[in-house]
């Protein structure tokens, strides 16, 4: 283990030194973004520690701050590269991210190279390695996500980071293929292309079928960008997108940026347009946010017999044609030569780098993905941060209000005889008894609350979902027609959507009930006017609808014999099942957090009010018994008031520090600093 740690440390030093030689816009943006995350996490950690020292924290506040810190710690940024074969996709990844190695990292040559989806990432504490998932695992029906946690299913090849040549040789495993019988390929759910124009695995002259040897590859590298959370996904063409549904349903939609790579020497082909419309463009056919089109291999248009202006005009013509074919604006298309960019960076040839036009693409990538990811992180944690700050302000405001009322009450006793003080003591006792009765009613609502939450959980129950999954799979097995398969899946999507809708209605009922409880307490005891938060499942409803639309699109595009159709449909459906189960799991987690937090503001106020009533009673009792003078007690309360005011100032100082960092623009600052 010590040797591995030492090896990793040495490797990181080498890689970082190479990276410093050629800092790109994306790297500067990423460094600034990581700095923003680190500063924000530091400010939140400071607030959390201060709250604990001031006795202002509780389980709900601590849980929400931990969620914020976990989001900032575990942040990942996914960039997917999508293209048909021979578009230079792997070379583009090499040029943008790995030129500092002085060699090609990913295999890149003429013809089909990357044969299986490949992820490049960094796993702290793990030695650099290539992990390969055998293609035979498709027979098990398990998804890639499920198999990630089963190390025995993967083959591991160590990477020699000190030798780029040795590392490149190891990574050649990615392109390996094998030949199997037709029946075996079909058993894996792979579509066999009998004609050259069809997508699918090919039949060789000997009658065997050539298939990828590996289903998925993961490359663990201690590269500076990967260490900061970047994950690169390299996908091998339309056939893989259809054969491995997780790419279509989960990985591509969740990517923060997708680079769609075309080749200038072949133009936009029919299969390119199919990939674009089916897997990348939004419903209106245009580019979604974070979707970039790359027109690669422009060096194929360089012609020594033409002057450079003619070459430029030819490139512009290709851009216009591409924009027309994909129905997107011309400024969304970036012409590059990945091969010349890589060569120029390795040789330090600035003129060649400039002619490759790689800088414009790298700047666009930096401008697109970092702000988009920052916006996602911001949206994920802003609610927790603002709710926590709001709740803490209410607690401090309630404490101050209670102290002022107590001081006013005692000041009113000045010059009064013991009978009046005794009468005041009886009044406070009466207030305390009334409050305790209200508290009993509040606790009684908990049983109703528990019943309502049980109904909510019944709609989100994972065991019920698993029963529906098993029922649907069984129905699909006995379906005899394409229409039968579609009906089974439509029923599944309809019932899962309905369950999620019912959970939303039930959450609204719970919220309405708690609003009544809050309002009653506020009217009777003068507590601060706060409203319980709601539970939103709209994003989960949208995601179920998106998955259903993908299924309809997928089924509409199938033109296979029914046996192949059944196998591919089952595979596609299993990926949807895994995704929807994950959706319900996340909805359960959200419901857990919401149900815990919906009572938190009221419980905090109730707790503060109870403490205040005890203090009032104790103060008046001590004055009545002449164990304290009125002046002494008022002076003590003034000290308490000053202490709470100091807490208020400290809280606002920390809140301002967090909110300022949360809403700052890290990328712009980072670029300005590095200019």
Write the layout of secondary structure elements.
Blueprint lengths: L1 H19 L4 H29 L5 H15 L3 E6 L6 H9 L20 E4 L7 E6 L9 H4 L7 E4 L5 H8 L5 E4 L1 H6 L4 E2 L7 E3 L5 E4 L1 E7 L3 H4 L2 E5 L2 H7 L1 H10 L2 E7 L6 H11 L10 E6 L11 H19 L6 E3 L2 H10 L2 H7 L1 H54 L6 H42 L2 H17 L3 H44 L12 H19 L5 H37 L1 H25 L5 H33 L3 H9 L1
Parallel strand pairs: 1-10, 1-11, 2-9, 6-7, 11-12, 12-13
Antiparallel strand pairs: 2-10, 3-4, 3-9, 5-8, 7-8
Helix pairs in contact: 2-3, 2-15, 2-22, 2-23, 3-15, 4-13, 9-10, 10-20, 13-14, 15-21, 15-22, 16-18, 16-21, 17-18, 17-20, 18-19, 18-20, 19-20
Key features?
elongated; nine-stranded mixed sheet; 675 residues; 3 domains; Rossmann fold; alpha/beta; four-stranded mixed sheet; disordered C terminus; 65% helix
What's the overall geometry?
elongated
Strand residue percentage: 5-15%
Query: How many E strands?
Result: 13
- The number of helical runs is 23
Helix percent band: 55-70%
Total domain units: 3
Major β-sheet strand ordering:
4-3-9-2-10-1-11-12-13
Radius of gyration in whole Å, from Cα?
Answer: 32 Å
Global mean pLDDT:
78
Distance between the termini: 41 Å
Q: What oligomeric assembly is this protein in?
A: single chain
| Poorly predicted tracts of residues | 1-23, 283-287, 667-675
């Amino acid at each position: 283990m010590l040797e591995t740690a030492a090896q990793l440390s040495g490797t990181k030093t080498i890689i970082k030194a190479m990276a410093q030689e050629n800092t790109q816009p994306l790297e500067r943006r990423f460094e600034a973004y990581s700095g923003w995350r680190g500063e924000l996490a530091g400010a939140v950690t400071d607030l959390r520690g201060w709250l604990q020292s001031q006795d202002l924290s509780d389980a709900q506040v601590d849980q929400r701050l931990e969620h914020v810190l976990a989001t900032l710690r575990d942040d990942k940024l996914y960039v997917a590269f999508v293209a048909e074969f021979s578009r230079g996709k792997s070379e583009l990844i090499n040029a943008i991210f790995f030129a500092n190695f002085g060699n090609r990292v990913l295999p890149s040559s003429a013809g089909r190279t990357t044969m299986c989806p490949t992820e490049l990432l960094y796993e702290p504490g793990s030695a650099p390695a290539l992990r390969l998932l055998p293609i035979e695992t498709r027979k098990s029906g398990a998804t890639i996500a499920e198999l990630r946690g089963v190390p025995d299913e993967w083959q591991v090849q160590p990477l020699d980071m000190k030798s780029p040549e040795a590392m490149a040789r190891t990574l050649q495993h990615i392109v390996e293929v094998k030949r199997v019988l037709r029946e075996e390929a079909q058993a894996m759910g792979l579509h066999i292309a009998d004609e050259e124009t069809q997508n699918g695995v090919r039949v060789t002259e000997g009658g065997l079928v050539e298939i990828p040897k590996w289903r998925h590859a993961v490359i663990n590298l201690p590269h500076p960008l990967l260490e900061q959370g970047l994950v690169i996904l390299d996908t091998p063409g339309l056939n893989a997108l259809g054969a491995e549904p997780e790419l279509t349903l989960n990985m591509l939609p969740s990517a923060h940026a997708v680079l769609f790579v075309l080749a200038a020497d072949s133009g936009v082909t029919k299969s390119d347009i199919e990939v674009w419309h089916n897997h990348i463009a939004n419903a209106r056919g245009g580019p979604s946010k974070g979707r970039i089109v790359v027109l690669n291999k422009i060096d194929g248009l360089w012609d020594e017999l033409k002057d450079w202006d003619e070459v430029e005009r030819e490139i512009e013509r290709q851009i216009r044609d591409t924009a027309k074919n994909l129905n997107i604006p011309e400024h969304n298309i970036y012409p590059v030569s990945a091969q010349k960019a890589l060569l120029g960076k390795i040789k330090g040839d600035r003129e060649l780098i400039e002619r490759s036009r790689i800088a414009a693409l790298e700047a666009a990538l930096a401008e697109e993905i970092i702000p988009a990811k920052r916006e996602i992180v911001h949206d994920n944690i802003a609610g927790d941060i603002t709710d926590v700050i709001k709740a803490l302000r209410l607690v401090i405001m309630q404490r101050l209000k209670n102290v002022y009322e107590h001081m006013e009450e005692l000041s009113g006793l000045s010059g009064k005889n013991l009978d009046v003080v005794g009468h005041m003591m009886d009044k406070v006792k009466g207030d305390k008894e009334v409050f305790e009765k209200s508290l009993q009613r509040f606790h009684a609502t908990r049983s109703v609350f528990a019943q309502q939450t049980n109904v909510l959980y019944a709609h989100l129950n994972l065991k019920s979902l698993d029963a529906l999954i098993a029922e649907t799979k069984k129905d699909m097995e006995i379906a005899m027609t394409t229409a039968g398969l579609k009906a089974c899946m439509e029923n599944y999507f309809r019932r899962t959507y309905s369950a999620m809708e019912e959970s939303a209605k039930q959450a609204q009922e719970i919220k309405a009930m708690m609003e009544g409880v809050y309002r009653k307490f506020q009217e009777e005891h003068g507590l601060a006017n706060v409203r319980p938060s709601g539970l939103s499942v709209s994003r989960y409803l949208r995601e179920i609808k998106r998955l259903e639309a993908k299924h309809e699109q997928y089924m509409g595009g199938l033109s296979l014999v029914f046996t192949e159709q059944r196998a591919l449909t089952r595979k596609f459906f299993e990926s949807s099942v895994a995704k929807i189960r994950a959706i319900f799991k996340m909805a359960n987690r959200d419901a857990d957090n919401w149900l815990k937090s919906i009572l938190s503001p009221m419980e905090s106020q109730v707790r503060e009010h109870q403490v205040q009533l005890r203090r009032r009673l104790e103060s008046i009792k001590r004055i009545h018994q002449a164990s304290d003078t009125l002046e002494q007690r008022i002076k003590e309360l003034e000290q308490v008031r000053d202490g709470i005011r100091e807490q208020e100032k400290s809280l606002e100082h920390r809140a301002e520090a967090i909110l300022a960092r949360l809403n700052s623009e890290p990328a712009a600052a980072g670029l300005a600093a590095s200019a």
